[in-house]
Amino acid sequence: MTQGLTSDPNKESHPLLRLVDPGRVPAHVAIIMDGNGRWAGARGLPRIEGHRAGIEAVRRAISAAREIGVKYLTLYAFSVENWKRPRAEVRALFSLLQRFVVAESRTIMENRIRFRTIGRTADLPPKVQKLLHDLEDKSRGGTWTLTLALSYGGRSEIADACETLVRESLEGRRHGRVTEEDIARRLYAPDLPDPDLLIRTSGEYRISNFLLWQIAYAELVILDIFWPDFKEEHLYEAVLDYQRRERRYGGVPESHAKGYRRERPLEGPSR
User: Fold this and answer.
1) Are strands 219-222 and 113-118 parallel, antiparallel or unpaired?
2) Catalytic-residue membership of 82
């Protein structure tokens, strides 16, 4: 029996939830879901069984994120590099994706979840594209956002944004130097806030070309478990870890600046 995307109202709250400060929950959590194949291999199972078990972990992650108060959840589902995998595995992955979307469409609509995708989705099989686009259109009014990164690469996203800028300049629709804001506005989902917390499973200390622009100041939590083993408590523990950290964005708290003489503020670089 599969678990749905929403928490069971009759289920007792996890003890870790009592430790979470509701006022400091990361608004946007992004997850690199890694380790499906190794999970299956360790059990003597075909790789597809690891991906199938990973779908259940996706459901648990969504349920936990909604329960704890996260507003945006972005999942790295299929990278541009994943096209290099055996054709049979790629077909199986998209078959699982189709089944997931069909199975959860009603729940997504009933719970006002806005479903989104980022990536070079035009490269996906036509039937998958239509299924995804239809759900994106129908769920546009949702108040909680689930984003799947599909045929996605951080470098590709930045390159695509730059290509758009070049085209606009050649067509005379923009002038002047390129700013960070110019690039940010041309990313796949410019209205999404940058992730506050990035979680990666499988114990690997890599970003793997995921949200390279957006995670500039995200807090990273690496979990030493394979993705199919991801449970609600792993998200709660990651959020508690996040809440123990001090986010500085390149500065320092006022309390750490004691002992310095008061000086005239430095002027910024001339433009």
Assistant:
1) unpaired
2) yes
* 264 has a pLDDT exceeding 90: no
pTM of this structure:
0.89
Q: Is the pLDDT of residue 2 over 50?
A: no
Find the catalytic residue in 10, 82, 111, 241.
82
- Helix or strand run (H / E) with residue 5: none
116 three-state secondary structure = strand
Phi/psi at 197 (5° precision): -135, 130
Indicate the pLDDT class of residue 1, thresholds 50, 70 and 90: very low
Going edge to edge, which strands form the sheet with 197-200? 113-118, 144-152, 72-79, 28-32, 197-200, 219-222
**Distances from the Cα of 10 to the Cαs of 6, 7, 13, 60, 90, in angstroms?**
12, 9, 9, 16, 38
Please, which residues have CB within 8 angstroms of residue 165's CB and are 6 or more apart in sequence? Answer: 174, 178, 182, 183, 186
One-letter identity of residue 156: S
Three-state secondary-structure class, residue 261: coil
10 is catalytic: no
The residue annotated as part of the active site, out of 8, 10, 21, 34, is: 34
Q: Count CB atoms within 10 A of the CB of residue 144.
A: 18
* Distance from C-alpha of 35 to C-alpha of 264, rounded to nearest angstrom: 52
Domains and CATH numbers, the chain: 24-245 (3.40.1180.10)
Q: What is the pLDDT of residue 78?
A: 98
- Torsion angle, CA of 205/211/213/214, rounded to 10 degrees? -100
